[in-house]
Design a protein that fits this description.
Length: 462
């Protein structure tokens, strides 16, 4: 074959590849919404798509929610590629940070009704809705601290701020938008009451915030994707979702003491469901601080740990993507719910008996017991509200509308006696307040319009 013919053949092959859409395509993964750039991609059969995670601080695995073939990258560093040979619509997500979702149409267009509204445009249309009512008529006590995880910062490409609200006036007192905060997800009060412990879910460190000045005084590097944090006597427990462990820190010095490995085998980055201990996320500690329940998002299970010995005393499977595990104040019962199926399960910890299983609603997140242990308030991000459950019979009592992306639940006292439940939201700029005594929505606390991504929420009143 002559050289001109070879050149012509190479050119023809190149044009054929372009026409068929088989040139490599890259989706860049970033820390800020909508996380996948582009979030919606349309390609021809045979196209190789590379997911580039090099701009993010932690791993973001790729897993199929639906589609003709199973996408399952496992935990990868830098890049992961997949060649799409089967036509259809692929809906994928990050199982560590499951609101990160994208769609790929192979050989066809992606229907608009399949695209999550926050991936169609940012900020989402729900953020333009007016606050649905006035603030509560009866003031609360102390402060409410909120993780506005998607709050944009001019000084950093890492989103997220902590918003502090005066519970007596329902006014914003301060916004902590330190550029070092990276998707702040969950927060808790230190044992001495002087500091706020703040996780950075898209990074590897816990931030210590002076409660009174709002200044970050320390960063402690503890492991990848720290999600939830709680204190118990003289210890701090932080779930490490990307590292399959629970970091244990000294409650006074904040220095790491040990890391509890939650997986059964040697520590490694697992694929989803390869080990029930994979991806520990939402945890809760019982009232006398002897036991801790943990939801394993990637491993699809619930476990309970003895906090004296740091040993696992209970483990049961759940439906996919449980994001939070609750435990009764006396430490005898534990529960979780699946983000995907909505299945709520409750167990007797000591006998292992299944006490209750039912569909609680669409996309349940946190299911937090009331201070007296009689009720469980469960945020339903897919139903834009909460369901309140009897904590003895596990029967639903009432469902209340609060706002799009209902996520976090915490309780704080109200003036004159009784309790409020404060509800955070990912996709609307307000906090909803529920009167736990009357089981009604008492009002809503307006936030700055940029304050989206409401995740962790904390009442500080001592």
């Amino acid at each position: 074959m002559t050289q001109p013919m070879k050149n012509l053949l190479v050119l023809f092959s190149f044009l054929f590849l372009v026409a068929c859409g088989t040139q490599p395509t890259t989706i860049h993964i970033k820390d800020q919404p909508p996380w996948y750039f582009p979030a919606v991609l349309e390609v021809e059969e045979g196209t190789t798509v590379t997911f580039d995670d090099s701009m993010a601080a932690v791993v973001h695995p790729i897993l199929a929610l639906s589609g003709p073939a199973n996408l399952s990258s496992g935990h990868f560093k830098e890049t992961w590629s997949y060649t799409f040979t089967e036509p259809g619509i692929y809906h994928y997500y990050c199982p560590v940070h499951p609101y990160m979702q994208g769609l790929i149409g192979v050989g066809m267009s992606v229907p608009k009704d399949m695209i999550p509204y926050w991936a169609q445009s940012w900020p989402p249309h729900t953020a333009q809705q007016p606050t649905p009512g006035p603030t509560p008529t009866t003031p609360g006590i102390g402060e409410v601290w909120l993780d506005a995880q998607f709050y944009p910062k001019n000084t950093s490409d890492k989103p997220g701020a902590v918003i502090v609200i005066d519970a007596e006036t329902w006014k914003v007192k301060k916004i902590i938008d330190d550029p070092r905060l990276n998707n702040p997800h969950n927060l808790w009060l230190s044992s001495d009451g002087n500091n706020i412990l703040q996780t950075n879910w898209f990074d590897s460190y816990l931030s210590v915030i002076d409660r009174y000045s709002g200044l970050i005084t320390k960063h402690i590097y503890i492991g990848e994707s720290p999600a939830h944090v709680m204190t118990s006597h003289d210890k701090i427990y932080v779930t490490l979702q990307g590292a399959d462990g629970i970091a244990v820190l000294d409650g006074t010095t904040f220095e790491p003491v040990t890391t509890i490995r939650t997986t059964h085998g040697a520590h490694e980055h697992h694929n989803q469901a390869s080990d029930p201990g994979t991806g520990p996320h939402g945890n809760w500690i019982n009232a006398n601080m002897t036991r801790m329940a943990v939801a394993h998002t990637e491993g699809a299970s619930i476990s309970v740990w003895d906090l004296t010995t740091h040993t696992k005393i209970f483990e049961q499977p759940s439906d996919p993507l449980p994001l939070f595990a609750g435990i009764s104040p006396d430490g005898t019962r534990a529960w979780t719910a699946s983000l995907l199926s909505g299945a709520f399960v409750a167990y007797d910890i000591d006998t292992g008996d299944l006490l209750k299983e039912f569909v609680v609603g669409k996309a349940p997140i946190q299911a937090v017991p009331s201070p007296d242990g009689t009720l469980i308030t469960t945020a339903l991000t897919g139903d834009a509200g909460v369901v309140i459950i009897n904590a003895t019979t596990f029967e639903p009592i009432i469902t209340l509308k609060t706002g799009a992306g209902a996520h976090g639940v915490i309780y704080g006292p109200k003036q004159g006696g009784g309790w409020y439940a404060y509800i955070s939201h990912k996709f609307v700029p307000w906090i909803s307040v529920i009167d736990i005594n009357t089981l009604t929505v008492a009002g809503h606390i307006p936030l700055p319009k940029e304050a989206l991504g409401g995740q962790g929420i904390l009442a500080v009143y001592n």
